[in-house]
Predict the structure.
Amino acid sequence: MAYQPKPPDGWLKTNLKYNKHKGSWAWILHRITGLGLTAYIYVHIYALTTLTQGEQAFDNEMKLFTTPVFKVLEWLLFSLVLYHAFNGVRIVLVDWADGAKYHKKLLTVVYGLGVVLFIGMGVLMFREPIANMFASLR
Amino acid sequence: MKVTLRIQRYNPERDSEPYYQEFIVEAGDDKERILDLLHQVKWKYDGTLTFRRSCAHGVCGSDGLRINGRNRLACSTLLRDVNYKKPIVIEPLPSIPIIKDLVVDMSDFYKKYEAVKPYLVNKSPAPEHERIQSNEDAEMLFESAKCILCGCCTTSCPSSWSDENYIGPAALLKAYRFVFDTRDEAADERLDIVDTPDGIWRCHTIFNCVEACPKDINLTWHISQLKKRVAEREM
Ligand code: HEM
Ligand code: SF4
Ligand code: SF4
Ligand code: FES
């Protein structure tokens, strides 16, 4: 009697079970940030619809965006842009230059530049409000 | 010393789902190979344990397995290559059908390999001796020609997991092997075969294949050469 082979697990379960290394994390992060940025574009366009509701509505919304919560969200959005853009350049180098031979070094550069620019942007964005906070404590 | 193997079992005559079984085996030192420990289980404890192997020396490519979560050859993996303080998990290659225990159905893998015409195509009459090739031209093929068709790469590839029609890194490597062979005349035919959404463009440069390959072949680099060649053809 012939027996049917057992069909394999689905793609999600296989992804979760298989060992991750630097390259797999780079890909997972790239996809998450790519989808995150795409979702953000829709949120962004939706936010701009207040433009059709008059000056007052738009100004109110812009004020909301200057609150600390939105500032922090903006900063986090910047981290998605940083990673996706730099790793995107890394992927282009892997595909069109000999990047496949030094992709782990490239990844170190991507993470390094990303962290430095993320912190730099944090300093630019929050230096004044934090300084003001300490000034008011004194 | 004692080492525990946690082996995935599946008997199609009896089981509806695979399950794990632990065996405690005796290892001389940390240079012992996983394959020898599997032999010990089969020969001393349970003769029904089923796995493939033939050369036992990394040449035939028949004992690709998932060992502690990643694909490798049982005959080329030493105890010291894995964490043997905890049970060593041994499973069949992922994402292809299981026939029994650690034996998987490789037919689809071979079909995709055949699809890229894995042989020299040259219509001109054969010379008296071999078709001459310069050292430099031959060197372009050395790395890709080391492949032993074990399937560790293709079954480790997330693109293969989510797209069963993806031709996979092993077949693409073989396409490179002949596309970049100066004696071959069918490069264009092969490029037509790989220049599809289920061909080179399904590769998202994840490098799982490179991590898995027991012959240290940089598959992603070879696939990138195919991508470049296809793009150059368009320009
Ligand atoms: C500097 C700008 C950008 C660069 C260099 C870049 C680069 C790339 C590259 C090379 C890929 C292909 C990845 C792969 O083969 O797997 C990709 C995928 C993607 N990108 Fe971007 N991108 C940029 C900006 C954006 C923006 C602004 C968005 C969203 C609005 C976005 C959304 C996506 C999505 C959804 C994917 C698919 C993810 C995937 O295939 O894993 N990208 N990007
Ligand atoms: S580099 Fe390409 S072929 Fe290799 S595992 Fe990643 S997606 Fe698959
Ligand atoms: S490229 Fe490496 S992993 Fe893939 S089949 Fe050949 S030897 Fe095995
Ligand atoms: S048994 Fe031949 S490669 Fe391992």
About this structure: Chain A is about 80% helix and 0% strand. The radius of gyration of chain A is 22 Å.
